[in-house]
């Protein structure tokens, strides 16, 4: 499996909305009304459907849709030795979630996402990204009752996530995304995030991506470019491409995953708007280093909303590619 | 020396009974119950939050802010000129709030918190006192999306005028202890004069209330000296989020009374009581200034059971200290 040798490659950030039958089954499972096997059967069905959905849309690099995951940090913590899961805490409004609690030495129990990745990849000839949560974010979003400080906790997470990343690569993943949305919240800890992530990516040959969103990236730039990954996937539509002025001042030297769809807005962006958004970035980054995707995971949108948004995105890219080749 | 809390208390716990507010809000949103039904649930959960504080032995309690949709800015939604926007991260937490949008001149229409205060007051036994928490004017200005004023100064001062009326209404309803939360203030030391002017506007109409300003989440190293000149009785200082604040209280004498955020309200790990005693003893210059011991911030960042444990720790430590001082 090779990555497409092209430009303006289209992809998505990771999550897709869970179908109603899966939401219902997850609730039933939490009440012990159905077995893990019964739930897993439906998670597989939903994964298969979301792979077909992406293929039909014509996306270049696919994701497994995270049908088997709840919260992006808690999912990993559920599997790691040394972690337990907290009681409910509020995320916002009437939304609650459970957080990881580090209660002992963190250890990797063996592959966590590899079987899911293998399953998703078996359903398509297009590359499927391996998806992990980065060590800094795991640390920042967990309660810590074991390690003496934030650095030790982040580095302990990096050891276990590095093993998971290597297992994904060994299984055949050519592209591994390690999300670090918490990086933008404490600019003074960027060196720690870089140190922790480097322990995950240092031995990988696969393409490495890190996704970030909803933070003040301006405070981190250009130091953000020191994150040891080949591609930074940034939410840009929601923040109206305000980073471009900074890119003019300090060149963006990596590949960019360019967020062109606002995932918190129900309305689908028209094709022309998306084209303009992509063209805006041409001024500072050449097309071969631009990957086009939504701002963030699509799990908060409906499948219909996701479809319209992505359809417009793929169409916009198609037209732009044609125009670029015509005028080349 | 007395024990207190900073503001909010978890709205839901893990048991079915402890999740009635979550279910109630959902049912109300789906128009399955009436507003009066939801209010009845909010009343019951407020009484429960008060009871937890009383059971632990907290001296100065709050109503737990059970009706608040977010950790801080919720009361501003009821001001003239304000609508509500999308979600934003609440400081460096993995917690979000709906951003107030300033569409026209901000003004006070009618009491926002008076009913909640009066309800809570009826549930507080004589052994404890009740304080009311308000967002500070500067922080409200910083956390809002300003689409009306040409300068943030004008926005902050109008927020201050609206909050002054709210504070006056609360005092008129019997509030004796008012707290303004200003977590944004230490982050913008260059705006201190503006923040001070705004706080003065809030406090001027108050005739007999005890007034505290609480800062949390960050270092006061750049604002500690200026904070001493505010027209308030006391300062809430977070000793957990910033080691610099510990050093400040070792090095400098505070002209204001102090409420110390001693226990980590963002981590489930329980503190050692002996360590806390030693820490307090290190504030030789300020021992007579310490009026309250409390968690570092609102307890809603913690799961319910952990929040209760932290309440017990703070109340127990305060009682032990008071009794050993009496014996000594």
Major sheet characteristics of chain B = 7 strands, parallel
Strand content of chain A: 15-25%
Residues in helix, % of chain A: 25-40%
For the largest interface, the chains and their residue counts are: A-B, 23 and 34 residues
Number of domains of chain A: 1
What is the strand content of chain B? Answer: 15-25%
The CATH topology of chain A = TIM Barrel
Q: What's the CATH class of chain A, please?
A: Alpha Beta
Helix content range of the residues of chain B, please?
A: 25-40%
What's the pLDDT, averaged over the residues of chain A?
94
The ordered H/E elements of chain A are EHHHEEHEHEHEHEEHEHEH
Flag low-confidence runs of chain B: none
Mean pLDDT of chain B: 96
Q: How widely separated are the two ends of chain B? A: 15 Å
Explain this structure to me?
- The complex is a heterodimer of chains A (328) and B (328).
- Chain A has 328 residues and is of the alpha/beta class.
- Chain A has a single domain (9-327), classed as Alpha-Beta Barrel (TIM Barrel), CATH 3.20.20.
- Helix content of chain A is 39%, strand content 17%.
- Chain A has ten helices and ten strands.
- Chain B has a single domain (2-12, 56-327), classed as Alpha-Beta Barrel (TIM Barrel), CATH 3.20.20.210.
- Chain B has helices spanning 20-29, 35-56, 114-123, 137-143, 152-172, 192-203, 224-227, 243-251, 273-281, 304-327; strands spanning 2-3, 60-61, 80-89, 96-107, 129-130, 132-135, 145-146, 177-181, 210-214, 234-238, 257-263, 290-295.
- A seven-stranded parallel sheet of chain B has the order 1-12-11-10-9-8-6.
- In chain B, α8 links the parallel β10 (234-238) and β11.
- In chain B, α4 (137-143) packs across α5 and α5 (152-172) runs parallel beside α6.
- The interface between A and B is medium-sized, with 23 and 34 residues.
